[in-house]
Task: structure prediction
Amino acid sequence: MFNKKTIEDIGLKDKRVLVRVDYNVPLDPDLNVTDNTRIKLSLPTIEYLIGQDAKVILMSHLGRPKDAVDEKYRLTPAAAELEKLTGKKVRKFNEIYSEDIRAYIENEMQPGSIAMLENLRFDPGEKKNDPEFARKLASLADVYVDDAFGAAHRAHASIEGIARFLPAVSGYLLKKEVEVLGALLEEPERPFVAVLGGSKISDKILVIQNLLGKVDSLILGGGMNYTFLKAQGFDIGDSICEDEHLQYALDMVETARENNVKLMLPVDILAAAEFSENAESKNVNIDSIPAGWTGMGIGKRTTELYIAEIKNAKTIFWNGPMGVFEFEKFADSTREIGTAIAGSRAVTVAGGGDTLAAIRKYSLTDKFSHVSSGGGASMEFLEGKTLPGVAALMDK
Result:
């Protein structure tokens, strides 16, 4: 249940509406948008506001400029892409705030039209959540709408600070993300299977801890496996390992047993003589990793066992590749696991940057029930944390 007010719970007709979107999109060397997914996801909210004859003022960050203007991080390409998608002119400003911008919005901007401010992170006040910077942003509008789930875990001026100065409500994307991820934690159809991969166990500690009290099966892949395997006494060669988390790995195995959670680890891996795309490789059992070799992903038998578990699931959450899928020679396990999840009859939810890259690479996006737009935000939500961008909104 989403207990925050949304754009449908507040009067917006003829209002100046400041919308935080997540247009942190990839650009090519010529500064063209190469993936417009995040811009497309904002369209339902923008179209609703236009339908209410609101003046729509968009703001976002892009990349990691060092608190100053950086030409390669301007939002101009995102504005051009939005124009293509909506067929409407977007008035793009080259500043975040000025009296001229405020005067334009108040006196010249027409109801149902769109404007876009410059990259918020050109100003150090954004990440510092500076109240004065937030107040200046707020002075441009009558209402604040947060539709940037991908940034909802940041207590920044445009996310949390601005809500102290304006009525603050959710857009459609933010609402959907919270509802879908919330349902995973509160009322999943069972069996509920979580598939976690990626290179480091440290990135997933809090997620694993939280999910071990909620899932029926936890499938582990990727580099984090080797910490678990070493903790249990296996020789992992030169595979990635976080020795400081060996005891944690053992504790999680015990916690899974106590919670009657089926914790699945590899029985075999794909190992390589070195970490390179064309390295000599072979499939080996976990007790037969050659000295000096590196684990590059789960093995064939492990992939089959994982797929069998996935086929029995009614709810599946996937975060993290099963191996070094960037190298085609070692991509099979991630592709096969991703395809199995996408082809399942279960409710399927995926999140995380590398996961989304794999889903796009294998053309699986449309086959998932929900692909989260927020990597860090989705993981912090699944850790059980309260997201500042959600907490700042008005309660129903």
